[in-house]
Design brief:
Low-confidence stretches of chain B: none
Order of helices and strands of chain A: HHHHHHHHHHHHHHHH
Largest sheet of chain B: 5 strands, mixed
CATH topology of the largest domain in chain A: Cytochrome C Oxidase, Chain A
CATH class of the largest domain in chain A: Mainly Alpha
Number of helices of chain B: 2
Order of helices and strands of chain B: HHEEEEEEEEE
Largest interface: A-B, 78 and 78 residues
Shape of chain A: globular
Strand content of chain A: under 5%
CATH class of the largest domain in chain B: Mainly Beta
CATH architecture of the largest domain in chain B: Sandwich
Number of domains of chain B: 2
Radius of gyration of chain A: 22 Å
Structural class of chain A: mainly alpha
Mean pLDDT of chain A: 96
Largest sheet of chain A: none
Helix content of chain A: over 70%
Oligomer: heterodimer
Number of strands of chain B: 9
Number of helices of chain A: 16
Low-confidence stretches of chain A: none
Strand order of the largest sheet of chain B: 3-9-8-5-6
Chain lengths: 474, 172
């Protein structure tokens, strides 16, 4: 688990520094030519998603292994695929200068390129390797869950929900909450990986033989289905850390309920079909897809606010919980998820999307989700483990400093995206129109404060890890 | 459409309420802990209402947004003026003048990669947009009520000069 989480956080750190450089360039503080800008942006985007995915997959693997036998070698082989893929992607950018961004839309990256064809190949192959590793992980976990709980019926607790009395009277138990996160990640992940490999293969074939035609609307649908799903799944992976970590912090129990099971069934379905919301401005799409996109996007929020976040608030409320860094991050991550969700649901509303699509509002909402949601869940889970093992928590001043840095700096950073997006500043602009550069400057300042808080947090984690094993549970 | 600032206001208000509520609930009387069963018995009872509230608000909001969907080529009057827009790396071919207070339809396509036809009004706000795709023509129906100078920006990443890809027309 620590290999996965450590690798994920290491990639995150490098991508964070790249991100600060990008925002500073947009503020006009550091000169970066557009070609270099888009190459770094390409790496930053895919790197962050893959970093969070690797960390989340590590957490989930560990939690599944606590419930059943898993062959460690498969986790390491999958890890090998991830590392190989990451190296290939890095090489495609440095020195390859690949600059088509991570959700590039065919006919990109074949037209108007400023990098050699081999860099495109390295990018596509690298992403394919990561997807193969992901699908290997999904296959192992799915197989283990199906075997342990008795097929899909048991894994998704169908009898527990529809024949609850008979189920409980027979002394049977449903899977624990974190196993639902694992099941949905593995199942939807398999679909996501397959779609990613299909579009990736199509693009690789076109690279080799440009006479092979690809329909751009088909390509766009597959690209967004893949990209949307993998990004969203990082959140659903990381939430398993909340399901196990927050009860530890609050010294309360968190059990599966029929409502929790149904919430995850809804997530299983709505997370995938909400992807249509990326194509609202594609009037060539069939209209029913636009309707489905909006309602699915709304419904995807229901399990989150009604079950997971509500449950988290109930765990914390009047629990006497000590606000260690682990607790702060797990609870703070839920707040970030909700705030990002408000931004997302607004953007997923078609009349609002007309004015917000492809403005900075888009990175606004996903940076909120990722930085103040997924990352915090990952750090929170890591800290809960470290604190429990050490039998110690950080002192008050350290907690305040880290909190101010990561919540305060983070808030300033994402707020700048929202306000610039509402003002119509487009996303993915190496040089932004007014008032873009002003808000990019504010964002850079916020990001630097965040990075300082993050550095303190890493320092604190190392300090706690070096303490001898504590006698007392925190 | 001018909804961007409304979106921002809703975001700030709802976001702030969410932060305040979650921080408050976690800290309220935290010095006097309660057993979990006491919290959950009230919490689960309240959750039923919360669930229906969220579902009903979602459904009503969804229904209210439908009349404002932009896929209205079918609703456009047959005598709307059509203008062809062709995007390519890195410029737009556009009409120089678009009439005010008259239904118009932009027939938008691309010669190479995906671009975004983003229309910015005289005040600098986005008034409409649609994707410009190769092999497809998208129809954006609009009626301009404010005369003046309009700027077009590319709103779909299309390559190294994406940020410089602009156009303009006058509405009068």
């Amino acid at each position: 688990m620590w290999t996965y989480i450590g690798t994920g956080l290491a990639i995150f750190t490098l991508m964070m520094l790249a991100g600060i450089l990008l925002r500073a360039a947009q503020a006009g503080w550091i000169p970066v030519d557009p070609g270099t800008f888009y190459s770094i942006l390409s790496l930053h985007g895919v790197g962050m998603i893959v970093a969070m995915a690797i960390a989340g997959l590590g957490t989930l693997w560990y939690l599944v292994r606590r419930e059943m036998e898993l062959d460690e070698r498969i986790a390491y082989i999958a890890y090998g695929f991830f590392v190989a893929g990451v190296i290939s992607v890095i090489v495609s950018v440095i020195p390859g200068r690949y600059g088509s961004l991570w959700t590039m839309l065919y006919p990109l990256p074949f037209v108007g390129t400023y990098w050699p064809a081999w860099a495109t190949g390295a990018w596509l192959i690298g992403n394919a390797l990561v997807m193969l590793g992901f699908m290997l992980w999904c296959a192992q976990i799915l197989g283990a869950l199906l075997a342990k709980y008795g097929g899909v019926r048991g894994m998704l607790a169908i009898d527990y929900v529809f024949a609850n009395r008979a189920f409980t009277q027979a002394g049977r138990k449903p899977p624990p909450p974190a196993m639902f996160a694992a099941a949905i990640t593995a199942f939807d992940g398999f679909i996501t990986g397959t779609v990613g490999l299909v579009i990736g293969t199509a693009l690789l074939v076109h690279l080799i033989d440009p006479t092979v035609a690809i329909d751009p609307l088909w390509a766009k649908n597959l690209t967004y289905l893949f990209g949307h799903s993998i990004a969203n799944l990082t959140m659903y992976m990381a939430v398993a850390g909340v399901y196990v970590g927050l009860p530890l912090c609050t010294k309360r129990a968190y059990h599966t309920s029929p409502q929790l099971a149904v919430a995850w069934w809804a997530t299983l379905v709505f997370v995938i079909i909400a992807y249509f919301h990326h194509l609202y401005m594609d009037f060539a799409q069939m209209q029913w897809m636009q309707f489905v996109g909006e309602i699915a996007s709304y419904l995807a929020a229901v399990p989150v606010v009604v079950v997971t976040v509500y449950g988290g608030v109930m765990l914390a409320h009047r629990s006497g919980m000590r606000w260690s860094l682990g607790a702060m991050f797990l609870y703070g991550g839920m707040i970030g998820w909700v705030v990002g969700g408000v931004g997302a649901v607004i953007d997923a509303t078609i009349p609002a999307n007309v004015d917000l699509h492809n403005t900075l509002w888009v990175p606004a909402h996903f940076h909120t989700y990722l930085l103040e949601g997924v990352l915090l869940f990952t750090l929170g889970w890591a800290f809960v483990n470290i604190e429990q093992r050490a039998g110690a928590v950080s002192n008050l001043m350290m907690r305040w400093l880290v909190g101010l840095g990561m919540f305060g700096g983070g808030a300033l950073f994402v707020f700048s995206f929202y306000i610039a997006g509402a003002a119509g500043v487009p996303r993915r602009y190496a040089v932004e129109p007014v008032p873009g550069p002003l808000w990019a400057g504010v964002a850079t300042a916020g990001a630097i404060v965040f990075a300082l808080g993050f550095a303190l947090c890493v320092f604190e984690a190392i300090r706690l890890m070096r303490l001898p094993k504590g006698e007392v549970a925190v | 459409m001018g909804t961007a600032y409304l979106s921002f206001e809703i975001f700030v208000v709802v976001g702030a309420l969410a932060i305040i509520a979650m921080v408050f609930l976690a800290n309220y009387r935290s010095q006097e802990p309660l057993p979990q069963e006491v919290v959950t018995s009230k919490g689960y009872a309240l959750r039923r209402y919360w669930f229906w509230l969220v579902l009903v608000v979602s459904a009503i909001t969804f229904a209210m947004t439908i009349p404002y969907f932009p896929y209205s080529a079918a609703k456009t009057p047959a005598d709307a003026k059509h203008f062809t827009v062709v995007a390519q790396q890195y410029g737009f071919s556009l009409p120089a003048v678009v009439p005010v207070n008259v239904p118009v339809v932009f027939d938008v396509t691309s010669r190479d990669v995906n671009h975004g036809f983003g229309i910015y009004g005289p005040s600098g706000a986005i008034v409409g947009q649609v994707q410009a795709m190769p092999d497809y023509t998208n129809h954006l129906a609009m009626t301009f009520t404010v005369p003046g100078h309009y700027t077009i920006r590319c709103l779909e990443y299309c390559g190294i000069a994406h940020a410089a890809m602009q156009g303009e027309f006058d509405v009068r």
